[in-house]
Amino acid sequence: MTRPTRGFVGRRRRDPLRVLPPGQYDIGEDWPVLTAELTPRIVAERWSVTVDGLVATPTTWTWAQAHALPPAEYRGAIHCVTTWSKFETHFVGVSVDTLFGVAEPLPEATFVVATSDTGYTTNLPLADLTGGKAWLVWESGGRPLTAEHGGPVRLLVPHLYFWKSAKWISRLTLLDHDESGFWERNGYHDRGDPWEEQRYQGD
Amino acid sequence: MVSVDHPMPATVILRLAVPARTDHLPGQHYVVRLVAEDGYVAQRSYSVASAPSDPLIELAVDVLPDGEVSGYLAEVVRPGDELQVRGPIGGWFVWDGTSTALGVGGGSGVVPLVAMLRHARDLGAGQRLRLVAVARTRAELLYAGDLEAFGATVAFSREPRADRPTGRLAAADLLPLIAGRDTVFVCGSPGFAQAAGALLLDLGVAVATVRVEQFGPSG
Fold first, then answer.
1. What's the predicted TM-score (pTM) here?
2. CB–CB of B193 and A35 under 8 A?
3. CA within 13 Å, CB half, A113
4. Which one of A86, A187, B10, B171 has the lowest number of neighbouring Cβ atoms within 10 Å?
């Protein structure tokens, strides 16, 4: 264990239901907006998402088509690499499993690159998107997802640091190798598990 | 920890000797990590204000009411203390002095711009960098002296200047500075970045040239 910092006591919440990953703090009611680029304005009804790459059936869903799929929701915490965690979030959309059920990943697919409308990218293992762990969401806290938070639709992968939950999602491309996305090329971790504190390259 | 300075209320400037340090690029930040006796950890990122030529790392910390880390840095840490830091971090919001840039910063968002201007001075590349710094009043502008000496456009939302009436950042502040910029850096609170971004887009600045760094509560 590292040597303690002289005189630092810290402030912590003792709510046993709000378990923080290492190095995180509970931000309470706020939901900070972090971005590396200017917020795009995307008309919801003209939005679409494509799943392609190493899949049997590359498929595109429009806004209407995505809303016709079986709905799914997430209730739980999200964790940002800048150290804030937000509990009791509520997102509504569609499970990525549903999309993959149609597109059918090929056996050799092991990684995914998620691309945003702006060109932002993030990479993650395919296994982190399957088995009920990921969604495309268009509603947050009972309201349409705002543009600054990634609306009309963003990727949601809450068990990883939130930069993996690409805003303004437009494409999921399946690959047989890992390809570092935007933040990963700029110093951040290729996987980003908050429980392993995988914040930066080399962690 | 070499020095702790309180140039104004709600700001603390730390200067740190980092052994075997990797030189940073202007725009990068360091993570300051505080560890309690029981192993509890709190950490936050702070932009570097110093140029790579400075033997010490200078961090300018916004002291937030009830700030867990900033409160400690404002009230407890003292010269001679050891602080755990990690860095430099960041590959996107950086300027190495070899291209043209416009930096637009509000509040503590001026800190990375100060690193840029100090580096520009070291390189003799001042003509490549244009800066706009925004605060409510001059008394609240971090690094006012450095920014004014560099020739930054300084805008106060609550205090008039001889060359500029009181008012928030406006298109007129940016228009003379946007030509021929390889990159535009926008840094500040989400509200500031949103407003500055909108002005830049309205003035025809290409979206792909704008890099944003924003922090602090959005609500």
1. 0.90
2. yes
3. 20
4. B171
